Amino acid sequence: MSNLYLFDIDGTLLNAGDLAVKAYEKALQSVIGIPLSIRDVPCAGRTDPVIIRELLEKNNQHHHITHEILNRIFTCFVTNIKEEVDKGYQVPVIAGVKESLTYLINKKNVCLGILTGNLQEGATHKLRAAGLFDYFDTIGAYGSDDEDRNQLGPIALKRATDFFQVNFKPEQVFIVGDSEYDIDCARAAGFKVIAVASGKNSRQELKAKSPDILVNELSPKIFDEKNYDNFS
């Protein structure tokens, strides 16, 4: 049997908050003339479209919530992130991540993918800036696929099934994430979930959502099936 692990990005693999804040400030200034900050709204575990809609609503910019303007904001945001990464911007990787990913890619019958609220292009540049891009085949689902995070599980499963040519059953799929929204997303799709208390949600908040596995940080032993019963 093969297991599919779908990783969240921000707060799970890396911390790119400053990069995203600056890129969105520049994008919003360029497109609507106001340098709003995404720090003014909750971001953890949410999709980029939801974050930007809420930010505009909070600042009485409802008239800018159109398909055309949102696309311009997102296009400018991705351009800004790419420019910073191309100039050498480095994003810090969270403890235990590289060791865990290295263990997984060398393990038989394991497939890796991404499931994140990030726009796909933004996610790619963040992974590049953290030196993690080569661990993934860009298979998965993104906030640019659907702004409702709970709809991303089936999208990621379909893409992984087609790419890896493996008929994954839902119980063979694990979402690995740091927020309550990762847990909700996994449950909506019938997947299992590994919650890691490395982001905004506390261990207590994550535990209240009853993930299958709850840890303080990622490590290779978490992904050894014989150790699953040792985590709670």
Fold and architecture overview:
With 232 residues, the protein is of the alpha/beta class. It contains 8 helices and 6 strands; from the N terminus they run βααααβαβαβαβαβ. The chain has 2 domains: 151 residues, HAD superfamily/HAD-like (Rossmann fold, 3-Layer(aba) Sandwich), CATH 3.40.50.1000; 70 residues. The protein is 41% helix and 11% strand. It has a 6-stranded parallel β-sheet. α1 crosses α3 and α3 packs parallel to α5. The longest helix has 20 residues. The two termini are 24 Å apart.
Q: Can you lay out the helices and strands and say which pair or pack?
A:
Layout lengths: L2 E5 L9 H16 L15 H11 L8 H20 L10 H9 L4 E6 L4 H11 L9 E2 L10 H13 L8 E5 L2 H10 L2 E5 L6 H5 L5 E3 L17
Parallel strand pairs: 1-2, 1-4, 2-3, 4-5, 5-6
Helix pairs in contact: 1-3, 3-5
